[in-house]
Amino acid sequence: MPTDLALVESASRLSLFADLDRDELEDLLPRMREVSFDEGEWVVRRGQVDVGLHVIVDGEAGVVLNDEELAVLPKGSFFGEISALIGEETVADVVARAPLRCLYVPPSEVTNFLLASPRVMLRMLETEARRLRTTDELRT
Amino acid sequence: MTTRELQTIGWRTTAPSMDYLPIAEHGIIGDLHSIALVGTDGRIDWYCCPRFDSPSVFGAILDKEKGGFYRIAPVVDDWVPKQLYLPDTNVLITRFLTPTGVGEVQDFMPIAGGASEHRHRLIRRVLGVRGEMRFRVDVQPRFDYGREQHETIFHEAGVLFRSPEVSLALETRVPMDFAQDGAFGEFTLRPGETATFVLEQVPETYVPRKYSEAETREAFEETVRYWRGWLSQCRYQGRWREIIYRSALTLKLMTYRPSGAIVAAPTTSLPEQIGGVRNYDYRYTWIRDAAFSLYALLRLGFTEEASAFMDWLTDRFREPRPAEAGPLQIMYGIDGRAELEEEILDHLEGYRGSRPVRIGNAAADQLQLDIYGELIDSVYIYNNHANPIAHASWMELTRIVDWACENWDQADEGIWEVRGGRQHFTYSRLMSWVAIERAIRIAMQRGLPSNLDRWRLARDAIYHQIMNRGWNEEKHAFVQHYDTDTLDASVLVMPLVKFIAPTDPQWLSTLDAITRSIVSDSLVYRYDVALSPDGLEGEEGTFSICTFWYVEALARAGRVDEARLAFEKMLTYANHLGLYAEEIGQTGEALGNFPQAFTHLALISAGHFLDRALSDRGGSVW
Fold first, then answer.
1. pTM of the model
2. Which CATH entry fits the domain spanning B3-213: 1.10.3720.10, 3.40.20.10, 2.70.98.10, 2.60.120.10?
């Protein structure tokens, strides 16, 4: 598959892929595909199980629960990974707040995708740890 | 849709293109390690990280295209800016007024308290005040004066700018997007709403995190507390208190806390003439400027800075130097290093095309004999008003005085660091006299060991030489050096250092001659460049420190009303925040590095003396 240079360039700026050199990134990208959503379009609905990993390349998404926006996910953020890893239903909706472009890994391929690049997995773990800490801080 | 139409509806496709702001259209914030210049357009166009003398990250003031900047401003163009300091602090507020709304940016750099490790943070807090206002933030770092490439990495809670030497994290809740080699974002604020941007030097693997509003508020309040606590030590209660306080706060911003060193100015290569070549790096510690700064701060009651600087100086005394070079170099790096190799940054066009842009300073190797006078005068003041000099420092000092007694009678490059060859400058001799005279006073007062007989002989020999060879019979004035009839503003300090009585006829005629030849509407030139080739091309503006010396000399000569008017006129040349550059151009514009310690310390000194002179005679006649 020919390499999409613009996509490599965009992906190289995202935190998940910050530790990869260009060759490694070009090797990894074919495992993902590009998906787009219009502003206002639902990306994930609460209770869905077949979500897959989404990494935001452009635009921003809102995490919504019971009509309340809990968080805004900007460029560089990712979502859908927990549902894919543990095979359970998603617990919130995700909506495109602006035209949204994501790199997408289908749920069945998420594990192999992460095993193929431990440094991406480590970055993801760091972010999860931070999210966990923020949640704890909010609770206390 | 055209770009203009897109802008009108509040959407820009690229970073707004910007021209150079006038030098005076800036405020300054800092954390006693470095500073940032914040323009009235909300743009930071000078910031070196992590230290004053580190390479710039934002340097658009030296090249609007390649230098890099960090701007927060309304999306629409038709705003009116206002800028002020939160009273008695170095927290800067830039306000934007439009017919439909008002918003402001609070800029500050937190200062670590106690023993906690200093974090290099630059915090910008944007507030909605009235109506609704849409802002755009553009962060375009250009590391190493624009010579180093960097990566821009987007994280959930901000952006990491990673270069080989320095990495900066921008932490914010505002979604950011990629633009050129940086990031931008847009956001709308209503009254009472805030958006915060924390830029911090971080390790290259750092992941930006979400700052809470409480955390930002705490940093803000701590910074305000720090500056107000510091200023509360000030003893000055006289006239012009606001601008004297501002000068003190500005001088403090120019101190490097880890070593106690004081920079001459926190910028490099802001030109003495637009398009000119007199562009130098002032981000170093000149013995002369630092000694004068110390003197000014001590006058106001700030002793902590004096102690820190004395320790720094004592370390310099102890460093071995070749005998012929003198015990001290004229300037050092803020960490005390002696090598300040000068380099020209060819890739930068300079402020409004004023090439070259220089970093480092080739004048470091010059011989300037006056520095020993300024140094020992400040030790004398320190000994009297702060802490009596310690044994080890005194023994080092006697070595310097002995050297001065041996070496005062030689040509040097002088206070103005001329690059046109060495001369026997009157000012250099005068300050050699001060060096030995003040050392004699300390020795006498404290009964400290010294070569008093030898020192007295040298002191008197210098005195007679200045009276004979520094005096020009034709001009009826003391002149720049022994082989010229050019007048020079540096001799204005003769009565200030008590070399000559301020009402001595020889002095009064010198003052008149200076007034006639190098004073223009109470502003004072250093000397007549055309009459006194200094090895450099171009013209220059009036030199602000000279104007303040002139004020003090007039006041000491009993011409207090004249002095007061000159002082008040000089105050009108400050910028909207009370800041001065090195020089003032023909139409009142600020020229040269900004802000400049020399100018602010001379303002404090002149204001202080003038206030006393006015009070002593029982009030004002104006």
1. 0.89
2. 2.70.98.10
